[in-house]
């Protein structure tokens, strides 16, 4: 069993880190660069910057933040939100990002995943899924959890793998920001179906939520946000708890 | 100031390598210019993605003979990730394609090497293993402890023919693969030292120290 990665997810609106519940009701919680630097020094394994409102306006405003962060943060950095074209991907990579996360545009034109992974390698392309419970299944949403698509989230996960995504990030809209734990059945089903790594996002409220997710699913990485932004726990606290629970992590 | 050239051949995120080197107080120049490469104190060949795409880009820029000439000067050379894989003679990715041939051996996709149920690509922090006692002495891993975690992202692995060229190993599932190579002034790391936190930077620092 390989080591589980702990990823800080930093959602940004304009110049500020924001946090909401169910991806809505966004509140300012800090400066993205300062938080990234703090988490890096605390031993985070990766950082994901998401432009929370980008897909509404059709642009990503994070490039200058990434440029600044990459000078001091030497762990992998992913950028997402409002990436619409190969040209946007090129700009994101030039600003210093290692991976690009795509959701809305992948639903609109699935071929962008194939084209981008052919040009930049699949390791660079993260298929992002925002899933919301619907009866006994989950539906994929776009525009930061605002618009339904009618597409089954698990089928879409398999399709993203086929298209050439190198990783999947699965965000549960229902659990996001609630601090009540992850949507384990959803993550479990997707991680069992695909052979590429799966990053789970949405719901971490304490270290045992992270540990339970790792024990009950084949997840490769866990994205956390509010739990860090509000100083409820540090990166070290969470990793120590995972280690104590027998989960392999980089300490 | 020591000048390190990071070879710019239109592939992957090279900015982070430049940033990492600059944070260590050296001048990092991103270029494909022959003159710049030949006059550098050390050269790094970065890269992620597909082997054939990487070699095609090197060939288009006529960089293969330049790299051979540079390595012939005896000055330090480091290939990272795809840059390490391309040091080998060939890869079996989508049919066979020829590499730089600076280290004898080939590159194969991980599932062909071992029956593994682990996820692919291998995207993980993973521990470096010293293949034989004191192998790391006077190398870029001189200051690295056995078992230190580095960041890996790859689906293919290099298989050097000569065990003496293997600098470090790593295990993934039931597979043990080559994580770093070293032959004279040539180094290669499958992991990304520029993305592996302070312990990764320490390896780049040791590489810089090789400059006379």
| Average residue pLDDT of chain B | 94
Spatial strand arrangement across the major sheet of chain B:
2-1-3-4-13-12-11
CATH architecture of chain A: Alpha-Beta Barrel
Q: How much beta of chain B, percentage-wise?
A: 25-35%
How many angstroms separate the termini of chain A?
A: 16 Å
Class from helix and strand fractions of chain B: alpha/beta
Helix content of chain B: 25-40%
Helix content of chain A: 25-40%
What is the number of helical segments of chain B per DSSP (H or I, 4+ residues)?
7
Note the quaternary state here.
heterodimer
What is the CATH architecture assignment of chain B?
3-Layer(aba) Sandwich
Q: Give the overall silhouette of chain A.
A: globular
General form of chain B: globular
Q: For the largest sheet of chain A, list the strands in their spatial order.
A: 1-4-5-6-7-10-11-12
Write the layout of secondary structure elements.
The complex is a heterodimer of chains A (251) and B (212).
Chain A: E1 5-13, E2 16-21, E3 24-30, H1 32-41, E4 46-51, H2 54-57, H3 63-69, E5 77-80, H4 86-94, E6 99-102, H5 104-108, H6 111-120, E7 125-134, E8 137-142, E9 147-152, H7 153-163, E10 167-172, H8 184-193, E11 198-201, H9 207-216, E12 221-224, H10 226-229, H11 235-244
Helix pairs in contact in A: 1-3, 9-11
Chain B: E1 3-7, H1 15-23, E2 27-31, H2 34-39, E3 42-45, H3 51-60, H4 63-72, E4 77-80, H5 82-85, E5 90-91, E6 97-98, E7 105-109, H6 110-113, E8 122-127, E9 149-154, E10 156-160, E11 166-172, E12 175-183, E13 186-189, H7 197-209
Parallel strand pairs in B: 1-2, 1-3, 3-4, 4-13, 5-7
Antiparallel strand pairs in B: 5-6, 7-10, 8-9, 11-12, 12-13
Tell me briefly what this model is:
With 251 residues, chain A is an alpha/beta fold.
Question: Can you tell me about this structure?
Answer:
Chain B: Its main location: cytoplasm. Chain B: Keywords: Amino-acid biosynthesis, Cytoplasm, Glutamine amidotransferase, Histidine biosynthesis, Hydrolase, Lyase. Chain B: The active site is at residues 81, 192, 194. The complex is a heterodimer of chains A (251) and B (212). Chain A is of the alpha/beta class. Chain A has a single domain (5-244), classed as TIM Barrel, CATH 3.20.20. Chain A contains eleven helices and twelve strands. In chain A, helix 9 links the parallel strand 11 (198-201) and strand 12 (221-224). The longest helix of chain A has 11 residues, at 153-163. Chain B has seven helices and 13 strands. Chain B has helices at 15-23, 34-39, 51-60, 63-72, 82-85, 110-113, 197-209; strands at 3-7, 27-31, 42-45, 77-80, 90-91, 97-98, 105-109, 122-127, 149-154, 156-160, 166-172, 175-183, 186-189. The A-B interface holds A 1-3, 5, 40, 43, 45, 70-72, 74-77, 93-98, 120-124, 166-167, 195-198, 218, 220-221, 250 and B 12-13, 15-16, 19-20, 22-23, 48-50, 53, 118-126, 149, 151, 153-155, 172-173, 192, 194-198, 200-201.
